[in-house]
Amino acid sequence: MKVLIWSSLFAAFLAAPVTAQSPVAVHDSVHNLTFLGYNYSGVENFQGIRYGRDTSGSNRFRHPQAFTYPNGTTVQATAAGASCPQNTLESLAGITVNEGVYNLSEDCLNLRIARPAGTKQNANLPVMVWIYGGSDETGSTNYTLYDPTALVLGAAAKDTPLIFVSMNYRVNIFGFANNPAVRAEKSLNSGLLDQRLALEWIQSNIAAFGGNPKEVTLFGESDGGTGVGLQMTAYGGQGSVPFQRGIMESGSPAADPGVSGNFTLTSTTTVAQLAGCSSTNSTVVLDCLRQLPMTQLLKAVIQYENITASELSQDIFFPVVDGDFIPAAPSTLLRTGQFHKNISVIAGWNYNDGSIFTSPTLNNSVDVCAFVNASYPHLNTTTLGTLMSLYPINDFAATAAAVNISPYFLQGAAIWRDVNFACPAIDVAHHVAQYGSQSYLYELNATTFDTVLQLANASFEGVIHVSDVPFVFNDANLGLGITAAQQVVQTRMSGSWARFAATGDPSGNANNTFADWTQALNKTGAAVKGQAVQQASVRVIGGPSAGQHVLNKTTQGGSGIEPQLLTRCAFINSVDFYQQIQT
């Protein structure tokens, strides 16, 4: 999802500490390779490990090819690998910040591994694989926000030691180009295929680092969470799958409006024109784009991002239905059981997940309708009217007065949250349970960005998008302090994620995890064939309503949280609505 401002603000408060490092080595006897890494604060790190070949030149936009180190190679894995081409410099209030991306290259298909110090090759530890978000525009394993040190140390201290892996994959036009020539050569969705290739590398190589390739959990946030979902629906569920569990934070298979449409075709055409590659022949355009220097093509991408920044709240490059990796609309794949059914999931959203995508200047119903129409341009008049009727403005009046913002802003933000995050999470939990696997739902109602928001006079945005990431990485103190309540959320959220990776159950010791976290749907609820979920169990994380709650459609709210959510989601998750938002 497209974050236009706050990604820069987050980065300004994230600085990696300087700690002494000592060398460490891993020998892979199967492939006769030695990896030289380093011990940092009790965590052994291996960075810049190549899993795919250079994607520049004739390989630009194409699906990745596996990289193989020559037999007997000693791999220097002590420095961060290159990040894929993206906009690295963003500005907030005149201050330029860098989010941990310093070296850009199309030779960027590399990964990072972190494990507890002293891990033996036969440790057989569960593996957690992080897929970063960033609107499919930016992202890197090198972001300080994704430093795995505290997560790995915390998991080990809670008796659920794990191996952490994250991969760099291509973003924006480099990973998600779309025109007839790209489709004809079957090069669509290369960014997703990068992720898949990294997962295959893990299957073949992680045992040498002490990991268990049969206990792999994918987790990701925003478009990273959507990436987890799309790996689950990959190839319509046909063939083998290189992971066993998935955690989708503010993302799911059907969370990207436009996947079955032509928006990225327009984006590719526009970027090509900005880069000087104009032609009515798509093959000519593709050849021209491949011949451009990386910096020139990236400049055109950034120019297009700047043009659309004030016009769109949606992403401008993202996956598309290709008839292969994504054989049909993701919502259809879920509804019809065309996904890998032996995968247990956690899916959830943040209480105010839609706020940073919504203009605080919305001040009347006309504004809100225009905002929703711009976000989902293919909704017909009847559907738009019904959607608006499910969010009466009076529902937001009291909260608006309390946080000193227009209720129309809260109305628009609630619609955006539910369409993109909350309702797709309930949908994926429903269908995973329907086909026999375990699913868990959560709503996060805590954030450590509250002080940052206060400094920006934006406290009304609440528990914003990305609030979950610092908690999950067990590193929620952003340099401005952390409360006791936030500390509890950090400990238990990171602990539940690690325990889920180790056992498939996020509940354990109440001091370390969210105890008694029940599955999202019972057998009766899971058996519902339509899209209208009647009842769902949701774990509320943090806030005054923290604990396990049951959403009940017939009694309008069950235990009192989100009283209209299931009614709203029954409409948003309907076949007709999904078709109109093209996901």
Automatic annotation (TrEMBL):
This is Carboxylesterase type B domain-containing protein. The keyword Signal applies. Gene3D superfamilies: alpha/beta hydrolase. Transmembrane segments: none annotated. Belongs to the type-B carboxylesterase/lipase family. InterPro entries: AB_hydrolase_fold, AChE-related_enzymes, CarbesteraseB. Residues 1-20 form the signal peptide. Residues 42-523 form the Carboxylesterase type B domain. Keywords: Hydrolase, Signal. The keyword S-adenosyl-L-methionine does not apply. Pfam families: COesterase.
